[in-house]
Specification:
The protein contains one helix and five strands; from the N terminus they run αβββββ. It has about 150 residues and is α+β, with helices and mostly antiparallel strands.
């Protein structure tokens, strides 16, 4: 009988191909998970930006409802999801620039924060809006800050 020599090259090649396919699959799974997280973070950031604009408009509405005896300097808003869990915290701080004399409450310490009074322009307010997500929504917190001048 003749003895045949088998080198095992086919087996080594098969193992190499299986390893390459497994590495490609792992790369695809990793990329998919990363993209899924990025989409979720972009969605939360878009919601936070829209909430910052809404908080600005709500603060202007609340300021216009205050009488001349007081000022609204700080506004804190908590937004909950449908089940009642906190999703976003919006904090609005306001600093005024009065077109005429500041309200009487300004003479009382700590009631109205203002930059200037008796300006030749209309009364305006500088608003700093900061929106942050709850830590349970994402592995990384989303934080949006907007600053704007609003005419009253």
């Amino acid at each position: 009988m003749y003895a045949t020599k088998r080198s095992g090259f086919a087996m080594i090649l098969a193992i190499f191909v299986v390893v390459l396919v497994a590495m490609g699959g792992a790369l695809l799974m990793s990329s998919g998970a990363r993209e899924s997280k990025a989409v979720g973070d972009k969605y939360l950031r878009a919601q936070a930006q829209l909430l910052a604009k809404s908080a600005t408009e709500y603060a202007v509405m609340r300021i216009q409802g205050f009488n001349a005896a007081g000022c609204l300097n700080q506004l804190n808003i908590t937004v909950n999801d449908a089940s009642g869990n906190a999703m976003f915290d919006a904090n609005v701080s306001m600093t005024y620039s009065f077109g005429g004399a500041a309200p009487i409450a300004v003479s009382t310490p700590g009631t109205c924060v203002f930059l200037e009074q008796n300006t030749s322009k209309d009364t305006t307010v500088l608003m700093d809006v900061t929106v942050t997500t709850d830590n349970n929504l994402s592995t990384e917190p989303v934080r949006v800050h907007e600053r704007s001048w609003q005419k009253l």
